[in-house]
Specification:
Elements: E1 14-15, E2 28-31, E3 35-40, E4 45-49, E5 54-61, E6 67-71, E7 76-79, E8 89-93, E9 96-99, E10 103-106, E11 110-114, E12 118-127, E13 130-133, E14 137-142, E15 150-153, E16 157-166, E17 169-172, E18 175-183, E19 188-191, E20 194-197, E21 200-203, E22 209-216, E23 219-222, E24 227-237, E25 241-243, E26 250-253
Parallel strand pairs: 1-2, 2-4, 3-5, 4-6, 5-7, 6-8, 7-9, 8-11, 10-12, 11-13, 12-14, 13-15, 15-17, 16-18, 17-19, 18-20, 18-21, 19-22, 20-22, 21-23, 22-24, 23-25, 24-26
């Protein structure tokens, strides 16, 4: 769950001249000025958007795996699609990545790496693929997804007036906060700072795991055979803890001589 240092990336290739819509145009390209393009029915292709340039994807369809786009510092990539309509695409963003669709889904086998804070104020983000944010996560809303993918956020994930739901594998290094937070199905959360709900934290799935240092909620509702793992010196602050499965769900303190 990391992205290469930008200094290790050297944009190379031919200047992009137009649309890439078949396998015959697979290759490596650079974008040095503002351009719009169709991207589809191609694999094994790398595109570098250079500083000062903007690339707008007018449509994306039927990619055939191993397509990578690098957005360098000072560059912009505009993606108006709902979900890029393809698997097998990776975007490394060191500049500006704009989603203009009201709803944005990261589909299975899609990899989005965003250096620094993400600011996707136009879109509700749902994730079934792999989403990496090297700072705070900010979007219009979090849509979650049943059968979610992998989410890595090194900073904060804060929606204090909203309800959030998580599935899949989730690492949030900073503060996670919401009105209600629900963990479904096989959701796993690794959190370094604290999880705060002004109302309820609901753990509903049999295989849910929370690896946390601090939980704060008006009610902690733990169902099924889920597990909460507490680190040394952890703390759960709630006036109302409910375990629905007669002890099948558990809270586990990790580490020799650990206290909580």
């Amino acid at each position: 769950n990391s992205m290469p240092a930008e200094s290790s990336i050297t944009p190379t290739g031919n200047e992009l001249q137009g649309n890439i819509t078949d396998a015959a145009h697979a290759g490596t390209y650079i974008v040095s000025s503002n351009k719009e393009m169709l991207l589809g029915k191609v694999g094994n292709t790398t595109i570098y958007v250079k500083q000062g340039a903007t690339l707008k994807l007018t449509n994306v369809f039927e990619l055939q795996d191993n397509v990578t786009i690098y957005v360098m510092s000072g560059a912009t990539l505009i993606d108006p699609t709902y979900d890029l309509a393809s698997a097998g695409i990776t975007i490394y963003n060191y500049g500006t990545l704009q989603f203009t669709s009201n709803s944005k889904r990261i589909a299975p086998n899609q990899y989005i790496y965003n250096y620094g804070d993400a600011n996707w104020s136009n879109s509700t983000i749902s994730n079934q693929g792999h989403l990496y944010v090297g700072g705070d996560f900010k979007a219009k809303a979090w849509g979650g997804w049943q059968g979610g993918g992998t989410l890595y956020v090194s900073g904060n994930f804060e929606y204090p007036n909203e309800d959030l739901a998580f599935d899949g594998n989730n690492y949030i290094g900073g503060k996670l906060s919401a009105k209600n937070i629900t963990f479904n199905n096989n959701a796993k959360l690794y959190n370094e700072c604290g999880v705060f709900a002004t109302e309820n934290i609901n753990i509903t799935g049999n295989n849910c795991e929370l690896h946390v240092a601090y939980l704060n909620a008006q009610k902690l509702d733990q169902c099924a055979s889920s597990n909460i793992y507490l680190k040394n010196n952890s703390y759960i602050n709630t006036p109302n803890y409910v375990n629905h499965n007669a002890g099948t769900a558990s809270i586990i303190l990790e580490g020799d001589n650990a206290v909580a």
